[in-house]
Design goal:
There is one protein chain. This protein is of the alpha+beta class. The protein has one domain: Protein tyrosine phosphatase superfamily (Protein-Tyrosine Phosphatase, Chain A, Alpha-Beta Complex), CATH 3.90.190. It contains 7 helices and 13 strands. Strand 2 and strand 3 form a beta hairpin. Helix 1 crosses helix 7 and helix 5 runs parallel beside helix 7. The radius of gyration is 19 Å and the shape is globular. It holds the Pfam family Y_phosphatase.
């Protein structure tokens, strides 16, 4: 029987942390890892095997990001998933992706362009303990003005700011066939080992807050844009209906693209903590196990471990405690 522990108020988050860790672990263990009815037809096609960083982490057929087909990618496949969370009139939209590989970097930037992303959240190092976790898909720090070419896309580093545990880069993404450009805000968190949790709770919450501020900025700017104006494309002029999202693409805010190495472990922690903090700040009903279950209905295996799940509870407690002090 699923242990459903409901959290409808801020006090209950602290109460939850006072319960035994065994109860929290049981709660985590009883959340289904994936949607059993989901298909993986495109992800499992032989020609797409090389596009999957890990054979056991695949996007569901009905929530996968679908790219415009090209000669080199006839099925428009990339290992990434659309994630939409609705709170009545409120909604948050994400793209959860595996880290780019050399063979998929072109597809990655095509996805950024076509999905209307302005913010990329990177939660992994490119190499950790000698293991390749992510291809260097953007210009390195201290290479301002350098241009990297990825098929029809050119990426230029405008500026870069290094903080204690993260690096912020402002990138200029240019679609060469149309000569249109978009500013991309790239946030890389540096202090989060694979399979673990951020070493500093306070630093991680500050990172979340900085990205939330940027998201609000992007949403405010997009509200002022003429969506069909040349030179700063946002979405297609004619909104396209997306069955997997259950709405027209212009009905929701621009997506935040989040990736670690696999697009499920650290990515899931980020999505879960971001969504829960958003719900607290907007006085919405929130329920951690139900939100994680809902996320796993859109991409498998979000949040790898019990320790990561517990960390999200700790984030909520710290966020609430800090909010009361302000």
């Amino acid at each position: 029987m699923l242990l459903a522990v409901r959290c409808f108020g801020k006090e209950s988050v602290k109460d939850k942390l006072l319960e035994t860790q065994n109860i929290v672990k049981l709660e985590f263990d009883n959340i289904p890892k994936r949607r059993l009815s989901a298909g993986f037809q495109t992800a499992q096609r032989p020609e797409n095997h090389r596009r999957n960083r890990y054979k056991h982490i695949l996007p569901y057929e009905d929530t996968r990001v679908v790219l415009r087909s090209t000669k080199s990618n006839a099925f428009g496949y990339i290992n990434a998933s659309n994630v939409l969370v609705k709170f009545g009139k409120h909604s948050l939209r994400y793209v959860a992706s595996q880290a780019p590989m050399r063979a998929t970097a072109v597809d990655f930037w095509q996805m950024v362009w076509e999905s209307g992303c302005f913010i990329i959240v990177m939660l992994t190092a490119c190499v950790e303990n000698g293991v390749d976790l992510c291809y260097q898909y953007w210009p390195r720090m201290n290479t301002e003005g350098k241009v990297m070419r990825f098929g029809d896309y050119a990426v230029t580093l405008s500026n870069c700011i290094e903080a204690a545990v993260h690096v912020f880069s402002s990138l200029r993404l240019k679609h060469l066939p149309t000569n249109q450009q978009r500013l991309i805000y790239h946030f890389q968190y540096l202090d989060w080992p694979r399979g673990g949790t951020p070493r500093s709770l306070t630093s991680y919450l500050g990172f979340l807050d900085e990205i939330s501020g940027m998201r609000r900025h992007v949403e405010n700017q997009s509200a002022l844009m003429n969506l069909s104006a040349p030179g700063f494309p946002f979405y297609e002029a004619t909104p396209e209906y997306h069955p997997e999202l259950g709405c027209h693409i212009s009905d929701v805010s621009p997506p935040v693209l989040v990736h670690c190495n696999s697009g499920v472990g650290r990515t899931g922690v980020y999505l879960l903590s971001d969504i829960m903090i958003y719900s607290i700040e907007h006085n919405l009903e929130f329920d951690l196990p139900s939100v994680l279950a809902m996320l796993r209905q859109q991409r498998m295996n979000f949040v790898d471990t019990y320790e990561q799940y517990l960390f999200v509870y700790q984030c909520l407690e710290e966020h609430i405690r800090h909010s009361r002090l302000v």
